[in-house]
Design brief:
By secondary structure, the protein is mainly alpha-helical. The chain folds into 2 domains: 214 residues, HUPs (Rossmann fold, 3-Layer(aba) Sandwich), CATH 3.40.50.620; 84 residues, Tyrosyl-Transfer RNA Synthetase. It is built from 14 helices and 5 strands. Strands 1-2-3 form a 3-stranded parallel sheet. A two-stranded parallel ribbon has the order 4-5. Strand 1, helix 1 and strand 2 form a beta-alpha-beta unit. Helix 8 packs across helix 9 and helix 10 packs antiparallel against helix 13. Bound molecules: tryptophan. The site of tryptophan (TRP) has 14 residues, from strand 1 and helix 8.
Length: 340
């Protein structure tokens, strides 16, 4: 199977996810629905970054293993089409590990320690002084992921922009040393719709905070989650004027309700007073149920045949490996590491 958009002049786009849990509405807004659109205009690679996930999950290897298929099911359920997008498993492409090893000589420990994404994640994970070396150096591995496929476009969340900057530093250093442009610099694109807050109103929707709505959520789970959605703590009586700022019910309606005029009218009524939270939540529940029902149905359909899902991953990985091998060969030649 070849990608139908395998025209050599079509820009290559690459993204990835660490498979550590099922994907949720935050992923849907931030990346998944864009990938469904990108696959028609770019040559798209989507990576299940299982090796990268191990850099902070060595104490729970099973979690990473289990979630590779779960995340692949989420991809297929939202409409990422394996005939258009190459879905690959990072750990099954040894060339990515090989490139990482060479790139590590093009970054300093001090530069890695200054990478804002890494710094932030070290705090979040409470590593303090016991930072796994593999974690500290994962920007080099991410540079390997991107450059192996000569991706020129990398859609990422805002928090990942420093990773792209560091990747481009590696590319420039490498090309300068080689005296030729072997590796390709890439451009980060950040989705227009910003980060989706959690159902509890916290800035980020995240599995560890327990404030997600998963793409595979059942109708009952969606109903229960919407009931708990954070609104306006000052809106006690229906007649009180309500506030929109930080109001998750309205933020979700803005993100998912196709009827923008209906939402605008509802906002006007809410801020004027006289509109209860239950009415807003009822609308939100309807919107989410309608949007997630077909995704859930497709997910269940694919989940019936895991063998087929694994076959899709196997074929995508094999196709990706061929490309990564060509780049690795070029890199090794440029480094003088070729003898026969
Ligand atoms: N670091 C990314 C994340 O945490 C996942 C990832 C791995 C990635 N390799 C990548 C993203 C290459 C873009 C390009 O979500």
């Amino acid at each position: 199977m070849t990608q139908p958009t395998a025209n050599p002049s079509t820009p290559i786009i690459l993204t990835g996810d660490r498979p550590t849990g099922p994907l949720h509405l935050g992923h849907f807004v931030g990346s998944l629905r864009n990938r469904v659109a990108y696959q028609d205009t770019y040559r798209q690679f989507v990576m299940l970054a299982d090796s990268q996930a191990l850099t902070d999950n060595m104490d729970d290897i099973g979690k990473v293993h289990r979630n590779v298929v779960e995340v692949a099911l989420d991809y297929l359920a939202v409409g990422i089409d394996p005939a258009k997008t190459t879905i690959l498993i990072q750990s099954q492409i040894p060339e990515l590990t090989e490139l990482t090893f060479y790139y590590l000589n093009l970054v300093t420990v001090a530069r890695l320690e200054r990478n804002p994404t890494v710094k932030q994640e070290i705090i979040l994970r409470g590593f303090e002084r016991d930072i796994p070396a593999g974690f500290l150096t994962y920007p080099a591995s991410q540079a390997a992921d991107i450059t192996a496929f000569k991706a020129s476009v990398v859609p990422v969340g805002e928090d990942q922009i420093p990773m792209i900057e560091q990747c481009n530093e590696i590319v420039r250093k490498f090309n300068r040393n080689a005296g030729r442009d072997i590796l390709v610099e890439c451009k980060a694109i950040v989705p227009e719709v910003g980060r989706l807050p959690g159902t509890d109103g916290k800035a980020k929707m995240s599995k560890s905070l327990g404030n997600t709505i998963n793409l595979g959520a059942s109708a009952d789970e969606i109903r229960a989650a919407v009931k708990m959605v954070y609104t306006d703590p000052l809106h006690l009586k229906v007649s009180d004027p309500g506030h929109l700022e930080g109001n998750v019910a309205f933020i979700y309606l803005d993100a998912f309700d196709p009827d923008k005029e209906g939402v605008a009218a509802m906002k006007e009524h809410y801020t004027r007073g006289g509109l209860g939270d239950s009415v807003v939540k009822k609308r939100l529940e309807g919107v989410l149920q309608e949007m997630l029902a077909p995704i859930r149905a497709r997910r269940e359909e694919f989940a019936k045949d895991r063998g087929q899902v694994l076959q899709i991953l196997k074929e995508g990985t094999a196709r990706a490996r061929e490309i990564a091998a060509v780049t690795t060969d070029e890199v090794k030649k440029a480094l003088g590491l070729s003898y026969f």
